[in-house]
Design a protein that fits this description.
7 helices; about 15% strand; alpha/beta; Rossmann fold
Length: about 140
């Protein structure tokens, strides 16, 4: 059976803007699923009618995974630990929160996250391991 793959916001934004990952996506080994958190970020950033149309179409293209109650609770614990370990300010913790939720959701489904945001997701992996591929 093929593995399950979830694309992070960073990859989808680059793909929408530049078509940068088309070849890699077409030759991907895995079943694609979407993250509701990623699509919340995409909807938040879609500023034109065309962007909104593309995001809606992408959102409907694959089944959505959403964070569970436990993922939300665990995200708070992880972020509190990061704050203690690194002294992160609230702004940085807010910026990381959705990424932590994406990582926990991917982990819960045994999926692999594909991102171009190496630094934040490698940091998160120090707190909860999950399958990660950086493009």
């Amino acid at each position: 059976m093929n593995s399950i793959v979830v694309f992070d916001t960073s990859v989808l934004v680059d793909q929408i803007r530049t078509n940068r990952y088309l070849t890699r996506m077409m030759h991907l080994d895995g079943v694609v699923r979407n993250s509701s958190v990623v699509f919340a970020e995409l909807r938040r950033g879609a500023s034109t009618a065309l962007d909104r149309k593309i995001v809606k179409k992408l959102e409907r293209s694959h089944r959505l995974f959403a964070p569970s109650r436990n993922d939300w609770l665990e995200s708070g614990r992880i972020l509190a630990k990061m704050r203690g370990d690194h002294g992160f300010e609230p702004r940085k913790l807010r910026a990381l929160h959705f990424d932590v939720l994406i990582a926990l959701t991917v982990r819960a489904h045994g999926a692999r996250l594909i991102t171009s945001n190496r630094a934040d997701f490698e940091l998160i992996r120090r707190y909860r391991d999950f399958a990660l591929e950086v493009w």
